[in-house]
Amino acid sequence: MCLKFFGIFLISVIVACECSKILLIHPTFSRSHVIPLQALAKLLALKGHNITFVSLYPFDKKIDNYRDIKVETSKEDKELFDEIGKTMSDRKSPFKLVSIASKATYKIGNETLHSERIRQLMDNETFDLVVIGYFFNEFLLGLADHFKCPSILLFSGSFYYTLNKIIGNPLLPEAIPHPIINGKELTFLMRVFNLLLNAADIFFTNFYFSPQSRDIYNYNFPPDRYRSYDEMIRNVSLVLVNTHFTSSGPRPLLPNLVEVGGLQVKPNPAPLPEDLKTFLDDAKDGAILFSFGSNAKSIYIPEDKQKIILKVFSKLKQRVIMKWESDVLPGKPKNVLISKWLPQDDILAHPNIKAFISHCGYGGVIEAKSNGVPIIGIPLGADQKGNADKIVEEGWAVRLDMTDITEESLTNALKEILSNPKYRDIVGKQAILAKDRPMNAQDTAVYWVEYVLRHNGAPHLHYPGADLNFFQANSIDVILFIFAVIYAAFKVIKLICGFIFCRSKKGSNEKLKRN
Ligand SMILES: *[C@@H]1O[C@H](CO)[C@@H](O)[C@H](O)[C@H]1NC(C)=O
Ligand SMILES: *[C@@H]1O[C@H](CO)[C@@H](O)[C@H](O)[C@H]1NC(C)=O
Ligand SMILES: *[C@@H]1O[C@H](CO)[C@@H](O)[C@H](O)[C@H]1NC(C)=O
Ligand SMILES: *[C@@H]1O[C@H](CO)[C@@H](O)[C@H](O)[C@H]1NC(C)=O
C-alpha cells in the first residue's frame, strides 16, 4: 500500500519535472509569421509546459499554462509597417521591401529587448528554453545566453541562405531553386540566375543584415557580460522550418533542421464565428475566400482593380468572404462578406469553400493545399511569385498578375477554377500526399522541442561544417594547398632534373673536350 502511494508520488514528481518553462518570442508586425509559432506554443501548453509568449498578437482567450506578453509599439513602428504593406502591394521595388522589412524587424526587436516587460523577465525569471520566431533576428539569441538555456529557431517560410548557414546545412544552388524562383525548371540559364541570386543573398546577409543584427545584439547583450553574437549563432540547437518535401521538393537536411510544414493547420478545424458559419453553411452554390494576407492587405489594391474585382464578384452565384482591413467597402455586392481578420485555416476547411483568391503568401498556400482548395494566385512581392509558379506547376492553381486583371481575365480564371474538376482533383491528391507522414507536423514539432529539452540542448546534433568559413566549407583552402604542393613538387623536380641534366651535359662536354 505504502509502496503503491510512493509509486504514485514518484510518477507525479516525474510528470511534474518533465514540464519546462519555455519563452517563445517573435516581435514583428507580420502576423502571418507569428501564427506558426503561436500554434507551437499552444501545443506545448497543452502538453503542460509553462509558456510565455512575446509578440504583438496576444490571444483573446485565456489558455491554460500560457501567458501572453504584448510588445508595445510606437506610432512610428505602425507607420513603418504600413509602408511595408504598401511597398509589397506596389510590386515595383523588391530591394526596398527587404530593406524596410528588415529595418522594422531591427527597430521593433531592439525596442522589445529593452522594454520594461522584457527587462522584468530577464531580471526576475528563469527559462529552460528559448524559441525564436526567426526573421532577420539572430540578435534575440542573447536571451538564450541570459537564461543559460538552449535555443530553437522556427521559420514560418521556406529555407534560405541565412537559415541554412546558422546550422551549416548545404545550399546547393546547382539543384535547389532560391525561394523566389521556386517552381522554375533549373535549365542552364536558370542555374546561372540561381547561383547569382544565392550569391546576392550571401552578400547582403554578410555585409548588410548581419552587421545590423550584431549591433543590436552588442547593445542589448554587451560583450563584457555575454557570450559573443557568433558564439550564440553556433549554439542554436535546432531549426524548425515550415516546409515539407511534398511541397518544397526533396533536399539534403541535417538532423537538426526539421521540416514541420503545415504546423499552423489544425488537424481538426476550430468552430467558426457565428456570422461566418451561417454565411458559409447557407452558401448553396459554394463560396470563395479572398485574402491578400496580413502584410500586403486588400485595401492597398489599386482602386480601378478593386472596382473590377467587386463587379466580377457581384455577378457570381457563389458567395465571397473577403479580408478587407476597413469598416466600409464602397460598392460591396450583396453576396460579399467583409472582415478585417479571418480565421483563414478554419474557413478553408469548410466544405462549401470552392476556391481561394490569394496573393500566395507562404502560409496561405500551405493552408489551401492541406484543405484541398484550389487557388487563383495574384502574387505581389517577396516569395509569392515563386509560390504561385510552384502550385501552377503542381496543377492546382492559375496565376493572374495584378496588371492583367480585367473583368474578362478574372471571370475566366474563376470559371476555370470553379468548373474544371482537374484543380480540385489534383489538390485533393496533393493534400493526401502532404499528410502521409510518420507523425503529423504538430507532433513532429513538439517531439523535437522536447528532444532538445530532454538532452540539454542536444549538442550532439551540431554539425562541424557549421563552424567552417566560406573557404574551408568549399575546400578552397585545401585545393589551393594541394595545388601549391604540386607546384612546389614540380619546381623541385625541375630543379633536380636541371641539376642532373647540367651535370650530365657538363660530363659529356668534358668527354667531348677530352676526345
Ligand atoms: C508559469 O511560470 C510563471 C512565471 O514564473 C508562474 O508565475 C506560474 O505560476 C507558472 N505556471 C504554472 C502553471 O506553473
Ligand atoms: C523584477 O525586476 C524589476 C527590474 O527589472 C524590478 O523593478 C521588480 O521589482 C522585480 N519584480 C519582482 C516581483 O521581483
Ligand atoms: C537600440 O536602441 C537603443 C535605445 O533606444 C539605441 O540607443 C541603440 O542605438 C539601438 N541600437 C541599434 C543598433 O539600433
Ligand atoms: C551551447 O553552449 C553551451 C555552453 O558552452 C554548451 O554546453 C552547449 O552544449 C552548446 N549547445 C550546442 C547545441 O552547441
Automatic annotation (TrEMBL):
It comes from the Eukaryota. Gene3D superfamilies: Glycogen Phosphorylase B (3.40.50.2000). Residues 1-19 form the signal peptide. The chain crosses the membrane at residues 478-502. Keywords: Glycosyltransferase, Membrane, Signal, Transferase, Transmembrane, Transmembrane helix. One of its GO terms (molecular function) is UDP-glycosyltransferase activity. Belongs to the UDP-glycosyltransferase family. This is UDP-glucuronosyltransferase.
